[in-house]
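Exercise 7 asks you to align residues with C-alpha cells for two separate proteins.
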Amino acid sequence: MVMLPLLKRDFPHLKIVVITEDIDADKVGFAIGNGAASILPYPLTTLKEQLQKVMVEGYYFPINIMEKFITSYKKINDSNTEMEQKEYRKPLHLLTRRECEVLQLLAEGKSNREVGQILYISEKTVKNHVSNILMKLKVKDRTKAVLLAIKKSWVYVS
C-alpha cells in the first residue's frame, strides 16, 4: 500500500485494485485517500464480477469496505460524540433534491444500477446526476463527493 501515492501520481488514469486479507479501517482510509478504485477482501469469490464493476463504474467498494472507510473517516475528523450531535442538512443551495437523494445513496455505497433501482430511474439518468454532483461540488470522483458530503454533514452515515 505504500506504493499507492506513487502509482496514482505517475499513472493518474490507472485503476488501482487493492486485494488484502487485512481489512482495517485505517488501511481502507489510506487506500481510498490515495486513489484506490477498489479494495477487495481476500479470498476472492467473485473477482471477475468485481473487476467488471471497477471497469464499468470506475470504482467498486463492497459495503463492508465502505463501512470501514466511513469509520476511518469519522475517527479522523470528529469524535463519535460530536458526530452524533451533528445535524444533517441537505445542500439544497448547491444540489437539486434528486441529486441530494443520489448523493445519500452513494454515501451508502450503492452502485449506479442500485441507485437507479431504488429511485426508479435509468442507470444513464443516475450517471447524469452523478456527473452534475461532481461538477457542482468541484470534485473529480464520487468518493471525494461522498467525503465532502460526510464532512459537511450533508448525508447521514450510521
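Second protein for Exercise 7:
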Amino acid sequence: MSLLDKLKDEMKVAMRAKDKDRLGVIRMAISAVKQAEIDNKTELDDNGIIGVLTKMVKQRKESMTMYLDGGRDELAAKEAAEVKALEDFLPQPLTDEEIESMISDAIAQSGAASMADMGKVMGLLKPAMQGKADLGAVSGKVRAALNN
C-alpha cells in the first residue's frame, strides 16, 4: 500500500470517528502532496511524499517554538498535535548509532577524504535518511567526521 493510499484510508477512519483535528491534518497533508505533484508536474512516490510530510513537520516544530516563545501555549499545543498526527505517517527515526554507522559507510563508499567531498557523502545519505533523521544534524556530523 502506498503512503498516499494510507493517508486516504486514515482520512476515512478519522471521518468515521468524527475526529475533526486529525481529519484536518490528514486533509492538509493530502493537499500538500497534490500541490507538490502539480508544482513538479509528476506523481510523487513514497519518498517524495515523505519529503513533503517531513517539511510539514519541520514547519510545525518551528511554529511551535515561536508560539512558546511568545507565550501562546494553546497554539503551541495545537501545532504539537499536528506534528504527532503527521509523524504517524513517517518512518521510524534512526538511532544515533545507526546514523553514525551510515555516515562511516557512506564516507568509505564515496572515498571522501576532505570537506570538498561532503556533497558526495550527503548525496549517498539523503535518500536513505529522508524522513528518518534530521538532515541538518546529519550534515553537521558528516562535517565533523570529514574534519577529523
